């Protein structure tokens, strides 16, 4: 009994690192410390390598398309012979683009490299994959804590998401996790954490505990460059304290792009297509797409690149291609594709250059905004293991390799920098000095002149945000009795340095609509006037909208945290939630 009571008083923290190419799970009970984080290592399946068992491939095969299967197969269980899907995470975010993205990413969807089964959306495929992860994780936890204890222990799940992701992509991730079953037990919760932040927590807790290649001290400005399969994320932190507890805050708005290590794979696939044409593209996807034996062999070439310094070295990969002629790139007898180190380098180069450009920009920003240089650069993530990448970066800047993401230690960054400007489009009193007369109109309620559709940016890019940050906006709406009491307020973001005054600017993106529901409000609280011509009252529905930055959930807004308050009262008289735009 005593044991049970103790279990009730704590929770389990489970970190889910859902990656483009690999995913991993770690956990720690709240009554333990960061050092006790346990990483799930025994991922099932015959295809597992000995060295990377702490993560399982982000790959799924469906029974509908594979005759031997009765249920979906995931991770190492998916063999090269199966028709399978991977890199689906990249499909969750189609709207947020940065200047550092792989320019061919969108095109790859058409090429089929990033394809999805015809019968599923990206969120569903991610959900299906996460469901396998969920079930396996729950089985492991079950074995570890016993079913009875697990049943009464609330679990807090933390999903990692790239920092560059749009709000709708984050909402998609939440949705996929729910579909998968995460957070569906009573008391369980799904939160999101940005990948560089998760990386920072682990990397920084390592470097403060001694014995590592790099040491950090209070006052240090540490840049963490997380190079994954899909994205590269850069964030800079100011170390505030190391003892008794690590404390750091985000110093600048980070940089990032969809230019991870799979960009190299896509360039290689493009080269194959350009070199061999139909002889290559007519091969079934299972034999040449990501996850095939062919691409696995390429993976080894990629990983080894830079370990030996031999510019003349050649690389060979087995692939039987009917109709491909013997050439310097193809040995038809043996069925082997050959390429040079120079070729391989040409696929690495654009990625390395983008990473260098991002690092340069971040260092410049640090100097600009704080007058202080970044003094430590840590390279983390799977692609961060690349010797070639490390050497190329070292030619220009001093970087060290950080610890790989091993799990979330349960320490949180207290504040971070807002990545985008957020705001509404509102009708403001007309100001002839700045407003265009085209947008001018006269209010039906009070007869005053307003300018339609001016952007009001409520939170600025670069601003510090924390658990308590919220946006507050007073909204007035002239309303006749027969009209609807459910209003939709478009909500916008912008990542330009200086946000524009109007919404039709190319850098302004509509992220969704705040739906305000005043159907249960007491209308007598609002001002009203009799309108003879309409033979009806016109009300001025004036209310205050509060939008929380749901830090823990990682999403900007969620249902239940949007308050609608009466102007002069303190009571909440309506509800509001956000509907994200889907493409
Ligand atoms: N030594 C290496 N050289 C080059 N690339 C490597 C090396 N080791 C791993 N990679 C690449 O790193 C990627 C895996 O890294 P990681 O597990 O951090 O990514 P992820 O979590 O799947 O992706 P993301 O975080 O971007 O969604 C793969 O694309 C893999 O090919
Ligand atoms: Mg990752």
From TrEMBL:
Keywords: ATP-binding, Nucleotide-binding. SUPFAM superfamilies: Actin-like ATPase domain (SSF53067). The keyword ATP-binding applies. InterPro entries: ATPase_NBD, Hsp_70_fam. It comes from the Eukaryota. CDD domains: ASKHA_NBD_HSP70 (cd10170). One of its GO terms (molecular function) is ATP-dependent protein folding chaperone. Pfam families: HSP70 (PF00012). Coiled coil: none annotated. This is Actin-like ATPase domain-containing protein. It comes from Melanomma pulvis-pyrius CBS 109.77.
């Amino acid at each position: 009994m005593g044991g049970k009571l103790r279990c009730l008083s704590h929770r389990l923290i489970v970190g889910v690192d859902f990656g483009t190419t690999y995913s991993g799970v770690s956990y720690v009970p709240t009554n333990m410390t960061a050092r006790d984080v346990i990483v799930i290592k025994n991922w099932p399946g015959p295809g597992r390598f000995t060295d990377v068992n702490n993560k399982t491939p982000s790959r799924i095969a469906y029974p509908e398309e594979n005759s031997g299967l009765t249920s979906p197969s995931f991770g190492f269980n998916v063999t090269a012979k199966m028709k399978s899907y991977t890199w689906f995470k990249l499909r969750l975010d189609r709207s947020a683009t940065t200047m550092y993205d792989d320019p061919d990413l969108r095109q790859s969807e058409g090429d089929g490299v990033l394809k999805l089964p015809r019968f599923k959306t990206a969120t569903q495929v991610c959900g299906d994959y996460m469901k396998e992860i969920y079930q396996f994780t729950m089985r492991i936890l079950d074995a570890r804590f016993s079913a009875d204890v697990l049943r009464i222990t609330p679990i807090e799940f933390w999903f990692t998401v790239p920092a560059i992701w749009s709000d709708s992509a984050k909402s998609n991730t939440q949705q996929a996790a729910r579909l998968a079953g995460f957070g569906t037990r009573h008391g369980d919760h799904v939160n999101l954490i940005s990948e560089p932040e998760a990386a920072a927590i682990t990397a920084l807790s390592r470097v403060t505990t001694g014995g590592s290649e790099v040491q950090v001290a209070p006052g240090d400005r540490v840049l963490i460059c997380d190079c994954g399969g899909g994205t590269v994320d850069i964030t800079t932190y100011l170390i505030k304290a190391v003892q008794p507890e690590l404390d750091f805050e985000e110093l600048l708005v980070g940089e990032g792009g969809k230019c991870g290590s799979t960009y190299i794979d896509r360039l290689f696939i493009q080269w194959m297509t350009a070199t061999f044409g139909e002889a290559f593209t007519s091969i079934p996807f299972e034999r040449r797409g990501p996850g095939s034996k062919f691409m696995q062999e390429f993976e080894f070439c990629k990983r080894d690149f830079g370990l030996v310094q031999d510019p003349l070295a050649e690389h060979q990969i087995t692939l039987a291609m009917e109709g491909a002629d013997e050439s310097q790139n193809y040995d038809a007898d043996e069925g082997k594709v050959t390429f040079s180190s120079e070729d391989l380098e040409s696929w690495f180069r654009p990625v390395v250059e983008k990473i260098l450009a991002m690092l340069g920009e971040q260092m410049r920003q640090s100097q600009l905004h704080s007058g202080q240089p970044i003094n430590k650069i840590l390279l983390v993530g799977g692609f961060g293991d690349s010797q070639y990448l490390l050497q190329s970066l070292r030619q220009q800047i001093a970087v060290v390799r950080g610890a790989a993401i091993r799990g979330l230690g349960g320490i949180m960054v207290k504040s971070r920098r807002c990545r985008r400007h957020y705001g509404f489009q509102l009708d403001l009193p007309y100001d002839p000095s700045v407003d265009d007369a085209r947008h001018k109109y006269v209010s039906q309620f009070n007869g005053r002149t307003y300018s339609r559709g001016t952007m009001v940016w409520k939170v600025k890019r670069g601003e510090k945000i924390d658990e308590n940050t919220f946006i507050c906006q007073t909204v007035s709406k002239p309303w006749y009795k027969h009209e609807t009491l459910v209003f939709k307020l478009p909500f916008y973001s912008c990542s330009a340095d200086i946000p524009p005054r109007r919404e039709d600017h190319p850098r302004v993106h509509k992220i969704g609509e705040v739906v305000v529901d005043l159907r249960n409000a007491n209308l007598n609280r609002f001002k009203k006037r009799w309108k003879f011509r309409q033979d009806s009252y016109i009300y001025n529905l004036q209310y205050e909208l509060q939008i929380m930055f749901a830090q823990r959930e990682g999403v900007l807004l969620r249902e239940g945290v949007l308050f609608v308050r009466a102007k002069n009262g303190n009571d909440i008289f309506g509800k509001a939630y956000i509907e994200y735009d889907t493409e």
